Amino acid sequence: MNQDTRLSRLLHVLLHMAQTDAPMTSQQIAEMLGSNAVVVRRIMAGLRDGGYVEAGRGHGGGWRIIRRTDEITVLDVYRSLGSPDLFAFGFSNPSPSCLVEQSVNAMIADRIEAATAAILEEFGALHLSQIETEVRERVTKT
Predict the structure, then answer these.
(1) Cross-referenced PROSITE patterns, in alphabetical order (predicted)?
(2) How far is residue 109's CA from residue 87's CA, in Å, rounded to a whole number?
């Protein structure tokens, strides 16, 4: 099963951006993530549209975080990605005539909906500043 790593990658980038006043080019971010600049620009656009980063053009340009980390939640970043599915489960037939399959779909859908709501609540309560604190604790331990 393929995993969508965009959320963790964007959190990683934002935390690095928060540690410096210097802008980061799409190419620099791409090298950090082992990706390419076109992909970086595409995923950063959602953060820009949400008002979390800005992009400067030309010499000395690049991406900058423009909100404090205590003002950005993991939910904000998740939503900047277009709120992708959190679970890979789906139904082979979303509108089955079989009563057994209808029951399976209904029960699984209810549980996925509840689990999604719980995860999104946790994402909304987790600020980037809390992750920064975790980073500092790890640094002091090494």
Answers:
(1) HTH_RRF2_2 (PS51197)
(2) 11
Contacts (Cβ under 8 Å, ≥6 apart) of 84: 4, 6, 78
For residue 78, the Cα-to-chain-centroid distance in whole angstroms is 4
Domains of the chain, start order? 6-141 (1.10.10.10)
Cβ burial 40-73 (10 Å sphere, 16+ → b, else e): beebbebbeeeebbebeeeeeebbbbebebeebb
- Say what the pTM is: 0.89
User: Which long-range contacts (C-beta less than 8 Å, at least 24 apart) are formed by 3-7?
Assistant: 4/84, 6/43, 6/81, 6/84, 7/74, 7/77, 7/78, 7/81
Q: Mind listing the pLDDT tens digit for each residue in 98-113?
A: 999 999 999 999 999 9
Q: Mind listing the pLDDT tens digit for each residue in 3-46?
A: 888 999 999 999 999 999 999 999 999 999 889 999 999 999 99
Contact criterion met (CB below 8 Å) for 66 and 72: no
Identify the residue whose tokens are 């980063």.
53
